[in-house]
Amino acid sequence: MGANSSSISELPENEYLQKLSGSEPISENDPFWNQLLSFSFTTPTNSADLKLLEEATISVCKSLVEKNPRTGNLGSLIKVFLSRTKELKISAECQNHLFIWQAHNALFIICCLLKVFISRMSEEELQLHFTYEEKAGPSSYGAECEDLIEELLCCLIQLIVEIPLLDITYSISLEAVTTLIVFLSCQLFHKEILRESIIHRYLMHGRCLPYTSRLVKTLLYNFIRQERSPPPGAHVFQQQTDGGGLLYGIASGVATGLWTVFTLGGVGSKASAQLEQCSPLASQSLLLLLVLANLTDAPDTPNPYRQAIMSFKNTQDNTAFSSSNPHAFQINFNSLYTALCEQQKSDQATLLLYMLLHQNSNVRTYVLARTDIENLVLPILEILYHVEERNSHHVYMALIILLILTEDDGFNRSIHEVVLKNITWYAERVLTEISLGSLLILVVIRTIQYNMTRTRDKYLHTNCLAALANMSAQFRSLHQYAAQRIISYTCRHLRRYVYVLDKLYFPHSHCSTLQHCFSTLSDNGEELLSLTCSHILRSYASSLFSLLSKKHNKVLEQATQSLRGSLGSNDSPLPDYAQDLNVIEEVIRMMLEIINSCLTNSLHHNPNLVYALLYKRDLFEQFRTHPSFQDIMQNIDLVISFFSSRLEQAGAELSVERVLEIIKQGAVALPKDRLRKFPELKFKYVEEEQPEEFFIPYVWSLVYSSAVALYWNPRDIQLFTMDSG
């Protein structure tokens, strides 16, 4: 990049960059700027080239940091850019390629320099570099520029919201979004969450504040439209075919020595090919939106960008805006919904969906009223299904979205009315036809099971169970496999619970037959116990529960102390099975409540669940005397007894179809007043205190890993570790 440069590694030796970072002040009117800004390139996209560019930029920046206090050349470069953006809108309308091209190049250089400055100095030092004046003569930009940082930030926002998106303006629009992200990137280099920031203050007050709603709206529309990057050369001058130089007959004498074209990554490279398949502007806009929405509130004012996201309305909503929120605006909800459905494979889109459902009641109401809710729910379920391949934060967001949706009874009813065909990504069982509700149950139970056996994250399984509990009263026509999984998953934990109790009380002499029973359980929770083992388990469980019922907590405490004694030290950690006991008990309790809620509210709609329950009745009957489950077992025990009696009356060797027919008839005959009423199972998602401690590192980890054409040295990152998420 330079008069004779052909690779990034030669950038530090480039004569124009050496002059920019040298000891000689350069006036804003100097022809040098036309020479400096007359280059063309393919934006770097792969990490190797980006790292190379970063290293080259650091070399230039070191010299500029040292010389800028005397030359003010950084300020001069920014003023040159600001002066050229004044006519940018007219240039776009008039297809003035040269003007836009040079403005883009100026911004690209500013962005590269800023990124290094911000990673290596405090905000106060950065602010100081913006105040150094060039010493080469009067400023052509004018004395009205009192604060160069605010002027530049405001200019970038105006560029994003006011310049029409055309092939020739795509790159400068993308660069403006990128530069705003870079301005905010100081957070990356602090372990603690920034609650006081100079850049935040500029964006939340003063000249930038009136653009809040327009900026949020534009970034949302960039995400919605998913405009692809124009083909190479559409936004710059075409290079001559007979040489590497770019030569233009510009009357004003734009350049006497022009930079040659240099290519980062190359048109045929893998990174470039991938970039052509997506929208860099949409991706970058979404990242900026997430960063802005998660800025901490200022001491004297709430975050205006979050306020805008919380309050925008549908274009078809004619109600008046609230005077209490000056940042409200309207956007096409149908287009937004479509984009959210199509983009859920990315963490960023899932996080945006979470924010909108949690914070914007207008969006939540609209989504819940959609008759094609499966278009949104299916991608979320697929994220959870492939939990092994996703980072934990993405899984959390998907799960919380489901929890928020299941807070609505209308949603819980409607998902059982949506029939799906051939769910190809679900591998455990061929599902040729299943309701969305039954599929949701299958995926959530699979997620709980994965968590209990692998990650052991209490937060995750609690939210999974909460979503199932919210749905339970509205279960309708459960698929036989979904009903089977509800019961078999509960049974798996019932058996596990007895096994753990056995090891707690008798760590050296527990029942070998019982241990064998558990070693034969398959991963998907299917029952493989023989009838003999089942009888042994029933007898053994009965004696354990009899012991427990005397003084439940005291007995467990004594067993724990006994186990610690056998390990030889009070400081010895308990084995996993002992630590799991309370978790297993919580899961069993919740699963029993979910089954009970379904039986109490919609038994006649779910013959498959009753069938699965009767099939495993031996195991459930063992727990009727357990002190922690006695109350909830009453209804389950009553249902088991009632239907078992009717099946015995019908005779032996009944077909599955005949059993289901008897269950359906019995469901009508069962006196509902005999079932004990319990409080309705309803769980509501509430953000934990100081959510920024979770969301800000998460958002910046997404910026670090996903931002287009941005590279930071991982050794400089303080906010999160490289494996976070």
Automatic annotation (TrEMBL):
Family: Belongs to the dymeclin family.
Protein name as it appears in the record: Dymeclin
Keywords per UniProt: Lipoprotein, Myristate
GO CC field: Golgi apparatus
Pfam families (alphabetical): Dymeclin (PF09742)
Hydrolase in keyword set: no
Keyword Metal-binding listed: no
GO biological process terms held by the UniProt record: Golgi organization
Gene: DYM
PANTHER family: DYMECLIN (PTHR12895)
InterPro entries, sorted: Dymeclin
